[in-house]
Amino acid sequence: MKSTLLGMMLLLITFSTQAQEKKNKNAKYTIEVNGNCDLCKKRIEKAAFSISGVKLAVWNVESHQLSLILNEEKGTILEVKKAIAKAGHDTDEVKATELDYEKLHSCCQYERK
After folding, report:
1. Residue 93 and residue 27: Cα distance in Å, rounded?
2. Integer Cα distance of 5 and 27 in angstroms
3. Segment 68-74 long-range contacts (CB within 8 Å, at least 24 positions apart)
4. Is the pLDDT of residue 53 over 70?
5. What are phi and psi of 28, to 5 degrees?
6. What is the pLDDT of residue 25?
């Protein structure tokens, strides 16, 4: 009886361990972020680094692509996109509010889609 109960508990632990989603320690992402200039670059990268787990954030002015390395155990890509939108820049998934966009310097106000 004890061995059957012990065997069932071991089986249950094995299944529950396998069912847990493993998060990537250093996931690489490239996302589109709207902006115009080096002031935008500084603001976008600062917003990305404000999220715990961001190891690298480099925004390219010409391509409007943000390259990220993110420890997914500490933060999510959605949190990064929300922080960038809060700084006034639209991402592919999260748009800045009109109020946050209006706070941008005039040279940083990009054409919104």
Report:
1. 18
2. 40
3. 68/28, 68/29, 68/30, 68/31, 69/26, 69/27, 69/28, 69/29, 70/26, 70/27, 70/28, 70/29, 71/25, 71/26, 71/27, 72/23, 72/24, 72/25, 72/27, 73/23, 73/25
4. yes
5. -105, 135
6. 83
pTM: 0.79
Residue with tokens 């004890």: 2
29 HSE (CA, 13 A, CB side): 27
Q: What distance in Å separates the CA atoms of residue 43 and residue 28, rounded to the nearest whole number?
A: 20
pLDDT at 110: 93
pLDDT tens digits, 81-108 = 999 999 999 999 999 999 999 999 999 9
